[in-house]
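testing teh design pipeline on a random one, pls ignore if ur not involved
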């Protein structure tokens, strides 16, 4: 059995070391990581400031490979999201909508009943480009090809920006996103790391130190692009989908060039897709109670509550006031507003 090599790396601010597996990170990427600013991570010892956003060493490695090698096709569909903002739900809805002529939502063997949405709409940074020493051949994938990412718009591959492929983006009010992220981080962190306290995570979040954050930069990147190129980027909000999923699913279908027909509406196709992809339905499926996706994230941790306004059970009035001030400072004047309660 081959032995895995490890390298201890040390970089700016605060001292300390992080162990990186040599067989999963190239020497070139390791040297880059050594040069980057770093902060304590939520579920890893450190996160690094790469191209203006915070991420982990393995994510940096994958993103570099993705940026260098991915060649977009005009028919591609990219589901881009802020982490913990409805990613799994939007992937399921997108897959069911785009593939409905091949896989009827009425089919008892529909792929979404047997596969997690992240298997059907794979992440660039966790699945497609996960291995630094192997570039996958994507040319023979069934079209339209569906992919997912948490990468900010500015750091998407050049071919995505220059092609006519479609990008669907979703974000969620930062209060609920924070709580969901905090719970998720503590569920998937290695046992060797202590539990991340709510107060500590909150301070990091308000500073922008969270995976693929700052959250305001992430949101604004896609928001501005959706305004400048509405045929390229469709900007959605989690709360809007929860409020009127029928209306917004029609928007998604029209945006992707596969609108629902009147006959499909009358047959209940839209309602059936909504039911198939509902939080409760997906949470109860055996495939989502077990198994893993990406870098061995357990599927069962993807489904907690999916509610709007759950943050009021965890944030103090002073914390709410502080995060409100951050949002005003960073998002004020952009036109972005959020519904905080159900």
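output:
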């Amino acid at each position: 059995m081959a032995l895995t090599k490890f390298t201890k790396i040390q970089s700016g601010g605060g001292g300390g070391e992080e162990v990186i597996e040599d067989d999963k990170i190239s020497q070139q990427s390791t040297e880059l990581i050594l040069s980057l600013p770093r902060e304590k991570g939520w579920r890893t010892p450190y996160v690094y400031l790469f191209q203006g956003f915070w991420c982990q060493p393995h994510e940096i490695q994958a993103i570099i490979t993705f940026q260098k090698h991915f060649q977009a096709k005009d028919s591609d569909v990219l589901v881009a999201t802020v982490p913990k903002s409805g990613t799994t739900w939007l992937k399921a809805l997108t897959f069911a909508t785009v593939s409905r002529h091949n896989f009827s939502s009425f089919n008892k063997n529909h792929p979404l009943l047997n596969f997690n949405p992240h298997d059907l709409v794979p992440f660039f940074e966790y699945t497609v480009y996960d291995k630094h020493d192997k570039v996958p051949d994507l040319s023979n994938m069934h079209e339209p090809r569906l992919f997912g990412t948490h990468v900010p718009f500015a750091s998407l591959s050049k071919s995505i920006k220059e092609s006519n492929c479609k990008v669907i983006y979703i974000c969620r009010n930062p209060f609920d996103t924070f709580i969901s992220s905090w719970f998720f981080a503590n569920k998937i962190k290695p046992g060797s790391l202590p539990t991340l306290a709510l107060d500590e995570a909150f301070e990091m979040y308000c500073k922008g130190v969270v995976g693929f954050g700052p959250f305001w930069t992430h949101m604004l990147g896609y928001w501005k692009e959706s305004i400048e190129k509405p045929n390229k980027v469709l900007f959605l909000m989690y709360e809007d989908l929860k409020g009127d999923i029928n209306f917004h699913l029609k928007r998604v279908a029209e945006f992707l060039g596969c609108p629902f027909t009147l006959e499909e509406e009358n047959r209940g196709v839209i309602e059936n897709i909504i039911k198939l992809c509902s939080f409760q339905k997906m949470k109860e499926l055996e495939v989502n109670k077990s198994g893993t996706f990406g870098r061995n994230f357990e599927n069962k941790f993807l489904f907690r509550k999916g509610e709007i306004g759950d943050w009021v059970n965890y944030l103090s009035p002073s914390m709410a006031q502080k995060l409100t001030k951050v949002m005003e400072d960073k998002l004020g004047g952009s036109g972005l507003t959020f519904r905080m309660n159900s």
